[in-house]
Specification:
eight-stranded mixed β-sheet; binds L-homoserine; AB_hydrolase_fold; HAT_MetX-like; Rna Polymerase Sigma Factor, Chain: A; EC 2.3.1.31; 389 residues; two-stranded antiparallel ribbon; acyltransferase; alpha/beta; binds acetyl coenzyme *A; amino-acid biosynthesis
Length: 389
């Protein structure tokens, strides 16, 4: 049976579908906002077995609206895990060989503490009383999860988009704990254009009368229309003009003629409406505000005196960066500037630009060149780490 819709009441009550690690008042999470989050919890999934040396662990970091169900059926949508094509027994990231961990980020809505969680002070969902969560906060919490497993050094940290930002943050904040890092389709900071798109989405949510200043649970409502519009606008940025043209062109949706009205005449309109509607079934609106904000605030160079190379000073981590030619959200130049900074820091770094028209979300698709790059990088890092094949 499918789990209740994300954020319907309270995510802790609604989403018991993963193991959860709870941190009490003795272990607060220090937030960049200047406060402590306590108590808090992290929902996670693991796959495979941690070896005796605890040297085969791979941390997968999810993107904006992803979750911990990276390689198992998603209990909310009933769909395969979002990277099941890549991760599993006998897959490129082989769970017969590696111990894979994926956790829902702090601020999320699938079991980790987020705006739908109960605020211990009020006994009601936090809503906007939850402090703004940063990428560094997410990583700080993941580090506590990794400590729980007794893992000193992760064999690899990888992820795309917002997941890639977490990878960069891990490598910068905890270099001694990251043997190899694979940031995909990401940037060391969110661009002005990207902040602009996020702001459009947030305003769509907040303009929905059912949002109620973020207290919609108390009104028994959810700002579904606003969140759907936010997703529709964002979804366009995950694709490319060429892919839209190839898939939909100016084709009409289930009709032979224009209707001279505002129904979804075009397939692309119908497609976006579908993307918007299915999204609200699986995601919490306030969480969307928090996730987008965390990406907007990310600026690794600014955190290191304005010089990105200083974020990686002295690093021994092996890096591989991947970008896609048609990604206009995180264009190749973003990855290239990270590569330059890593070179300036004397790091071991390789870089792959993949030719595709599938846009930013290509990292979520069955993309043979991406898989070949990951396979090659992980294989060579495993040999360097002394992990047998
Ligand atoms: C990294 C993480 O952490 S995971 C992040 C969370 N997951 C996501 O963001 C995935 C959502 N993103 C997507 O679905 C992106 O479109 C992609 C690019 C990744 C998927 O690409 P594709 O596999 O090529 O799927 P496509 O974009 O064609 O979408 C297929 C869906 O659109 C629907 N669709 C296609 N054409 C139409 C149409 N004309 N009218 C209505 N619906 C349509 C399909 O029925 C299908 O619906 P379903 O997903 O409910 O089964
Ligand atoms: N489409 C993915 C990646 C966006 O960056 C998501 O929603 O998480």
């Amino acid at each position: 049976m499918a789990a209740p819709r994300a954020g319907k009441t309270n995510n802790e009550a609604d989403q018991p579908s993963s193991p959860v690690l709870r941190f009490g008042p003795d272990q607060p999470l220090k937030l960049d906002a200047g406060t402590l989050l306590s108590p808090f919890q992290i929902a996670y999934q693991t796959y495979g077995t941690l070896n005796d040396a605890r040297s085969n662990a791979i941390l997968v970091c999810h993107a904006l609206t992803g979750d911990q169900h990276v390689a198992n059926t998603n209990p909310v949508t009933g769909k395969p895990g979002w990277w099941e094509v890549l991760i599993g027994p006998g897959r490129i990231i082989d769970t017969n060989r590696f111990f894979v961990i994926c956790s829902n980020v702090i601020g999320g809505c699938l079991g980790s503490t987020g705006p739908a969680s109960t605020n211990p002070v009020t006994g009601k969902p936090y809503g906007l009383d939850l402090p703004v969560i940063t990428i560094r906060d997410m990583v700080r919490a993941q580090q506590m999860l990794i400590d729980h497993f007794g893992i000193e050094k992760l064999f690899c940290v990888l992820g795309g988009s917002m997941g890639g930002m977490q990878v960069l943050e891990w490598a910068s904040s905890y270099p001694e704990r990251v043997f190899s890092a694979l940031p995909i389709a990401t940037g060391a900071r969110h661009s002005s254009q990207n902040i602009a798109f996020h702001e459009v989405g947030r305003q769509a949510v907040m303009a929905d009368p059912d949002w109620h200043g973020g207290k919609y649970f108390e009104h028994g409502k959810r700002p579904e229309k606003g969140l759907a519009v936010a997703r529709m606008a964002a979804h366009i940025t995950y694709l490319s003009e060429a892919a839209l043209h190839r898939k939909f062109g100016r084709n009409l949706q289930d009709r032979d003629h224009l209707t001279f009205g505002f129904d979804a005449d075009f397939q692309i309109e119908s497609y976006l409406r579908h993307q918007g509607m299915t999204f609200v079934d699986r995601f919490d609106a306030n969480s969307y505000l928090y996730m987008t904000r965390s990406m907007d605030y990310f600026d690794l160079a600014a955190d290191h005196g304005g010089r990105l190379a200083d974020a990686f000073a002295g690093t021994k981590t092996r890096f591989c960066l991947v970008s896609f030619t048609s990604d206009w959200l995180f264009p190749t130049e973003e990855s290239r500037s990270i590569v330059h900074a890593l070179n300036a820091a004397g790091a071991s770094v390789s870089f792959v630009e993949i030719e595709t028209d599938r846009g930013h979300d290509a990292f979520l698709l069955d993309e043979p060149e991406l898989f070949a790059a990951i396979n090659g990088f992980i294989g060579s890092a495993a040999r360097a780490r002394g992990l047998s094949a």
